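Margin note from the TA: students keep mixing up input and output lines. Inputs are the sequences; the output is the structure of the whole complex. Example:
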Amino acid sequence: MVTKLIILGVIVLGVVAVAQLMRVYELSSKLREQRESEISNRDNKFNAAMMLTFMFVLFGGLIWLMVNYGWTGRGEAASVHGHEIDWLLNLNFIIIVGVFFLTNTLLFVFAFKYVRKPGVPAFYYPHNNKLEMLWTVVPACVLAVIIILGLKTWNDATAEAEAESIRIELFSKQFDWTARYSGEDNTLGKFDYKLTTGNNELALLTTNTLDTAINNMEASILKLEYVLNKKDTMLIPEDKDKMMVDLSRKERLVRLLHQMRDRHNPEVDAWAWDDIIQKDTLYLCENKEYEFNFRSKDVIHSAYFPQFRAQMNTVPGLTTRFKFIPDKTTEEMRKAKNDPNFNYVLLCNKICGGAHYKMKMIVVVLKESDYKTWMKNKTYGVKDATGGYKVKPGTFKDTYFAKKNAPVAEDNAEGNEEEENDEDAENQPAEVVDPELAE
Amino acid sequence: MAAVAHEAHGHHDDHGHHKESFVSKYIFSQDHKMIGKQFLMTAVFMGVVAMLLSILFRIQLAWPGEGSDFVSFFLGDTWAPGGVMKEDMYLGLVTIHGTIMVFFLLTGGLSGTFSNILIPLQIGARDMASGFLNMLSYWFFFLSSLLMLASMFVESGPAMAGWTVYPPLSALPQAISGSGLGMTLWLFSMAIFIASSLIGSLNYIVTVLNLRTKGMSMTRLPLTIWAFFVTAIIGVLSFPVLLSAALLLIMDRMAGTSFYLSDIIVGGEMLTNHGGSPLLFQHLFWFLGHPEVYIVLLPALGLSSEIISTNSRKPIFGYRAMIGSILAIAFLSFIVWAHHMFVTGMNPFLGSVFVFTTLLIAIPSAVKVFNYITTLWRGSIVYTPAMLFTIGLVSTFISGGVTGIILADAALDITTHDTYFVVAHFHVVMGLSAVFGMFAGVYHWFPKMFGRMMNIRLGYAHFWITIVGAYGVFFPMHFVGLAGAPRRYYDYSVYGEFDVESYNLQMDLNIIITMFAILAALGQLIFLFNFFYSIFRGPIAPQNPWRANTLEWTTPVERIHGNWPGELPTVHRWPYDYSKPGAEEDFIPQTVPLAEGEEEH
């Protein structure tokens, strides 16, 4: 409180002081019979000199920033197309920094040099078609180069992925990422958001998940109807309205689910069952092309891989894609940066809610042999000497049914990476699923 | 001739004879000069609010998690327990800062103030075509400002989805608290704002087309008027699209429609909306959003054309090329909007089309810059504060313009999209340039608005502090962005978990940025003091203080209703006859007939 008063006091005194200075200044200019509209030569010269000084400060500041914080500030790229982008970025920077220095120099030097000098009139020079043509054509030519090179890189970066590139789905929600590998068939299972249940957070489409979703939905409809129809309970009107709305929403959803069930082709089940769902860390293989399919559960997010020079928004109701080839393992990058704790990262780069800034996933790029081992263990699990699983198999089929019988699965939970992941998932509060659906 | 008809209208001849009450003179005024000043006052207030918000979140960015008395003083315990603002409030501040600055200060404040004051004065008209609609336009603006301010005080907080309010985040109160009542108020405020802007723009267009005085052909118009005229046309064509975007969003929020929503589970609730597309909103939003950049910029460029010519004592170089580039920019501004959407999931081929159109816009912009610089060449520059701000504007227009080339290049946008590089870019090219233009305009036309002069020395101090502060804020910000920092992050400490080098860089620079931001904000106090002090105590202005050619300086200092006491002036020449060889003075007002054998420019 005292500090606030002091601050307030200082401000008031400051204003009074400036007001007094103003009065002194005005009185003195009255004495000199100078008017505000007539700028004295001293003032003109002062500002002209300031213009030149400011130019040097500005240029010096920019150079200082470029020297200290990197020419383009971002470290080495770690993907194949990333190198092309960086090359193009450097070229563009050379052009624009050149233009910046040239035009600002002209501006400030002219501002310095052509300040009013008594007796020297301005030069009447209303136009010159040649000059104007010059600075229409030259920028146009430079831009043509920029456009052509830019579009070439853009077309390469956004072209369709190769047929054999590895498919991974990145699923975003407030406020984390989940990866889904396409498994041995390299085909991502189908999905529909209405299939979301407690053990099918990514809403994958199989006959079994479809039936479960229908059952859950019907059960919760029955529950609602039971409560609403109970003769011996009075409901608060607002609650009742809310439940009625809920009920009609669920009835609509269950109708749609039934329609989906009627059209369902059980052959696509296999695409989903071998998919591998992975939280926390995304493992990638060096020098393999990946096609990422992005999905969002709630609002728009953006999958931003700064080091791979890749970015794509994730949009609810729409699958978006981006491809890249990581070409430097995490180990190599750590050595190059001389930072043993460095990691690649996937950030959220589209405002998505309060904890937007925390929404990230560590990305690890492995050598091919390491990656294959990791993938094998993930798919088939690792057995210990006794024949039990040290690491349990992690395909969707395994985790789905393991979770369905959750009490049994929890028996051998110790020291098990897989299990930890599952627990993490369960610790995510109700945001994950409709509580009634989770049943 | 419409101008002649207007002249014959008789009514205007007895201006100044009928007494005006306080209310009709200062509040529900239909006089364009008073309405312009009302716009200016409201915008200055809104600008101060938005600047204060920016200081609050800059404090959070520089010293994350540290309690601050300053923050707690303004946000209180609800939103900043212990002086550390909440995550949600941070986003709310960012959103409202952006909204106020773009729409209320730079659209309402810049175009509203100067179109109103200068259009009738510079074309030689008694007033706007419709004084009543003009008044309505201001009061809609005032109402929308009130709603926007009120939205900051509701319990669930103001809108928090960023100034671009992308759904679904802005459509779902379950997703963030600000998407409740705060967002509703935001949408209604914007809808009213758009109505205000449309009424105003239609009025400007009609006035410029119909009420020019005798001899004022389109090619004798000052560039200010060309800029306001084209700005108004852009506004009329693009603001309705924003209105439709807002209305569809209102319907998605309130009537259960699915224009922007599809397949969503939020807050544990599975929504039935299906088939909508968030991309639709982005297309609609940016169809206004990009022209909006030029709605903000063109008036500033128009003002600076006038000021740079007057104070260099030289004709503006390439008058017709300047008009041509204004028209080219206006046309191109409608076919570049999707460069905001390269990585939103839009078809990449469509992206390449927009790369092409966007980079084209650099050509007319370059023409403008080179014409400004050539106007300075061999001039006889007089450093009024307005002139300083104009040179500042040209500098920021260059510095911000060149980084636009990076962002317009889709391939490079992949890595710079939504990072601080973007924030730095648009603040320099749109924010600083437009604000500098606005300051220049206020210093230059203050004598016409209030009949008094502002203090020159304080103007100098204001300019030098502002430009040092402004560059000090936004130059380092480019490097924060290039280091990969996403925008709208509450706290960049997360970077410490995976890349210490980048984290250190960002924290260093964030502190520098905040220091400069505080400096620049304090600099504005000088302006505020000078502005309000001079309104009441400034020395009385001479009729033509800057020795300028345009018509407004032929009106009496007393600023009478109807502008000119007798007949409307007749125009004989273009407005840029400065230092014309053979003339006695270094300026020839537009009302002076051509001398024997003299050629028009």
